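Technical annex B. To support the medicinal chemistry partners, we prepared a structural model of the target in complex with 2-oxoglutaric acid, based solely on the information shown next.
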Amino acid sequence: MPDITMLPSYPPALDGQQGDEAIPSHPLGVKPSGNALLATWSLRDAIGTFRLLPDELILLLLEHLDGSSLLGIGRTCKAFYAFTRAEELWKALFIQSPLDNFTWRGTWRSTYLNLPPSKVPTIDCSHLYSDVLYRPFNCAHIALDPYVTKIPPRNQIPRLPDLSVEDFHEEWADRPFILTEPVKAWPVYKDWTIGSLLSQHGQEKFRAEAVDWPLTTYRDYMADNSDESPLYLFDRAFVPKMGLAVGPPQSTPNAAYWPPACFAEDFFSVLGKDRPDHQWLIVGPERSGSKFHKDPNATSAWNAVLRGPKYWIMFPSGDKRAPPPGVYVSDDQSEVTSPLSIAEWLLNFHAEARRTPGCMEGICGEGEILHVPSGWWHLVVNLEPSIAITQNFIPRAHLCAALDFLSNKADQVSGFRKNVENPYQRFVDGMQEAYPDLLAQTQEELQKKADGKKRKWDDIVHSKTEEDQSGAGGFSFGFGDDSDVEVP
Ligand SMILES: O=C(O)CCC(=O)C(=O)O
Ligand SMILES: [Fe+2]
């Protein structure tokens, strides 16, 4: 059999820029499915009746087994050994029954089974051809450079030293931008590194997706994992946990950080203790990040990078705009389906996204802060191990959008504690107390928008009335020529 380590059909050509040599060999030697075309035999021949099932289905069946059953079936033949080494199986088992005391051992399987490297055999599975097994490994190793460099000038997110509140409200509240100066004055920018956080909070537990791990364990994970979508530390309680003071340095003794002046006005603060989660510490290794989403409750956000640059790709949204390439939303926008990992999205959709009108891209470096306007789609990738702080807020320019969201998309409102039964009313009450004039003005604006929509609807229905009056009978789409379609 010819020794083809990588058929050029997989991974897909990457803007024509990535060399295959960037990807190391699979640790078990598994190769992409395309290689089977030229192979004279395959390890899969040994799995008996299971041969009839596609690889995806085999993996789905294995998801129903516990650890010892997986080990058992993995001993029956090399093909099943390779299948039962799939990391997603062991990650799911680990998360279902998280251990209190464990050592991260480089893979989810070794960690779950508490296996030191010497107990993990290297078994040659080079005659197994499977995209299902090869794809996650490939995605965990793609070079990011081709996607984050050569940003077309029209797509570049503007970079400014700083911005006044007035300029923000008048010109920038609807546009992404990066400020290069304010964060550089923050004590946390000067002091925080992974090492300094470990020395002060190493044993403190932080939330990383579905698990709460001591920071030392998360550091071990960051330093040694091959996950396609690395576990991302996203902790909403970091301020009290780390005993931080947050606020303007003039009025906050020992302030650790403060929102830059242009983001300081934040109407969600009228909710006081009832405010939904709005500030997060974000830590992750290279390649970790956030898949395409819009921020909750029509809020805007700022994201300040303390360590490790982040690549951002963003799109505006709106009734007449399609979601970004590769992202699918339900009609009421309540469900976003972006089944692809960040790497898969980059491989398959980045080139198209870059050509799509409205696309904005940029790299937010250490000591810089990025503005995410209300309603904008964004996908983010860390280009190096990263520490960031993010905060959601409602500026004056998006008060109307937030009020509209809370009132008309009540089923999509998120983040409020259970005791807040009517978030819209709670927000209106808070605004009424603190900013009654602004609330009245915003409600008037909302009413005008609603009337405008109703008028449009009436206009459509009205054309029916005219047809009726003209004696034409039935409803006409009103193309104004013989092609008019009659609907009884
Ligand atoms: O840093 C990231 O991964 C992005 C977080 C995010 O989505 C945000 O700040 O809105
Ligand atoms: Fe976000």
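Notes passed to the chemistry partners:
The mean pLDDT is 89.
The CA atoms of residues 386 and 480 lie 60 Å apart.
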